[in-house]
Amino acid sequence: MTGFINRTVELLSPGGDSDSVKAAILAGADAVFLGVGDFNARKRAVNITYEELKELCGIAGERCVKIYLTLNVLALENEFNSLVQLLQDAVNAGINAVILQDYGLLSVVRRVFPDLEIHASTQMTTHNRGQLELLSRAVVSQVNFSRELSLDEISDLADAAHELGMKVEVFVHGAYCVSFSGQCYMSGCLYGNSANRGACVQPCRREYSGRNDRLRPLNLKDNSVFSSAEELLRAGADSLKIEGRIKGYEYVYNTTSAWREQLDRLGKGEAPHVSDSRLDAVFNRSFSDNLIRGRLGSDAFTSDSDDQSLNILDKVKGYSADRKEIAFTDGSSLEEGRTVTIKTTEGNFICTGLLGEKLSPGVFRFRMEHVLKGKIQRGHIVWGQPESMAGKNLKKAVRELSWTEKKKPLRMKLSGSAGSPLTLLAHAEGQQVSVVSEARLEKAEKRPTEKEAVYKQLSRLGNSEFYLETCDLDDLDGDLFIPVKVINQLRRDAVEQLSVQNAEYRIKPVLPVRTEGESLKPGLALLVDNSEILHGIPAGSDITVLFQLPADANGMHQADKVFDSFPDLIPWFPSILIGEQFEAACALLNRRSFRRIATDNSGIAWYAGEKGIPWIAGPMLNGSNGYSLEFFQQYGADGAFLSQELSGSQIHETSIPGDMELWAALISPLLLMKTRHCIVRNCTDCAKVVMDAACLPGCNKSAEIRDDQGNTIRVIKRAGDYNGLYLKNPVLYDHVLADSRTDVYLLDLRTPAADILNNSSLTDLLHITREMTASTGSSLQQKAVDSLLMKFPALQQTRPKRLA
N or C: lower Cβ tally within 10 Å for the chain? Predict the structure, then answer.
């Protein structure tokens, strides 16, 4: 039954550019998230300049709307000073909170800006209670949950968040990521544009070759839980977030206004709307609410990536790439500022672009938003969203929404006499500074400087943040000659000292750090997910052995049998542990006395730290700088992998805390993504329309797809684990041998990398890799590499691209 929602619920809207932020404010958003520059997860968005940010914060502040800055990317160590300076400028402009993904950046921001509100991005993949505990300790106040959670899972997790004093943020509209957010490496590893750096090229939207045909096995419909708004609020959501920072202001206005009306109805105890035409009128790939319903099935996917809101507007008459001009056969329905999509008559996508200056009837300047997918030709169809009168009025309202900066009052007192320096005392908002001239004052030989002239110079505050409220000249002798340049210099010095705009921060380096050559005899470790391989390890071997645990709760319980047989195994906990899976993992830690563990899940990292169990940070915790390794240390880590997306030179540029063991994968399957959806079903003849309770623990299936660049991708569903996408062949990361600080080299023989042993022995693999890691000269290492590739031809040699 509908009733009053007796609490404040935030409507959080996207702002990819200045117009979109203003549209969100006009539509009734309570808060807007936006990016400034390249340090955020939407590099393809126009983003905001600093000057625009000041105006937008001013507009938002006058209307009681909050502004959240997104810095939700993995940060490289050499970027921290720039990042903190950017954040200082944003704080000065008036932002209310910052949204973060990187653990190192979280630690540094908390230290440098202790009063700034910090929110956890969905890129942190938060889905269990342990992760909330960790974020609470780091003084995070609002958490965007993983998008894959059902209503029941959100409700349970929201209770835990509220107990810890944190607010719950949930996506309610816009594009889905098929991967667990923050754990998609496909764009970066295959195409050199990392999703964790905001440069995703959206390979999930592309066509792939399957067994017999072309298909889009990763292409999800868009998220819309509009009809479930009341249930979501009753589940404990405090902030409802709309996705869309690369979309235009009309999209932002329509989606925000629809949700504003829905929340207002609920706030008044009225029945919520089931649908809203405004949501259908802007970009969408058709909608699904399958995740929040816990219904993971084929109807969540679509074979069509096109915008379902588009209508045919016109036809192309001609196009000049040199002049960047496009002509239409009619053009009467088109005007400057419209976004249009060009397709062939067969419906093949060519491009999307913005109509600029109207040069003559039906002829416009044309700015493409991405690389052309083909030539624009006469007769091609022009698609777009029909613009209503409300759209025209909105454009006018957005352009008229402005703000005049309110300057701060400044009080000055100038004093001086012959033979003494000139002293200026300045007060502003509780701050006081005193500046003194270098030269001493002299009596005027003819005409003394008039006090009116002094006042005039002191009031020249120009574009500074101050205006002169009062000026006390009573203690300034009247018979002095005061050069204008002396007065101006004192004024500039006082304003500069009072203004925080020019503050510069330099972050303390990670200390103490490991130096080259400190790890003189690196160890070798083996990671497996099949206990049968353990029987092939040579007797008396000094190799460290780790065992990959399943995500499935029952499988976690059954793992005791493996540890009974091999008590020295180090358990490796998976990256995704939802609900009872996390509880089962904690129960395993409680009933067995592990001397050490490895984990890709931050919740298990927190729990191990609470129990005093040393842990190794896995690569899916995305450590990309020394500050993140320091953060892990605070919670009990004594070893860590860096992110698999870092190149050899970036690893070399990363500081390693002196008392932390550095691990590196030497041989490993190349993981492209983990997903809660069933991708195998999309590529095979599985008859299940919807995943059921037997799928996660029991299914063992795989498939292969190929992209247009010749990459073969294996889609694997392993019993007890979620769907994973991998490059077909396991990878030899021999670039890691160049960093002599590495303590342990890992041979990762989890599915599918164990296939390399099909025609060879584990003994041979261990022997050759031992030679490789023990060699000190590059020629000896290369000889071992050549020997390894000859013995195990299924290995693929690769070098990660620099994290762009």
Answer: N
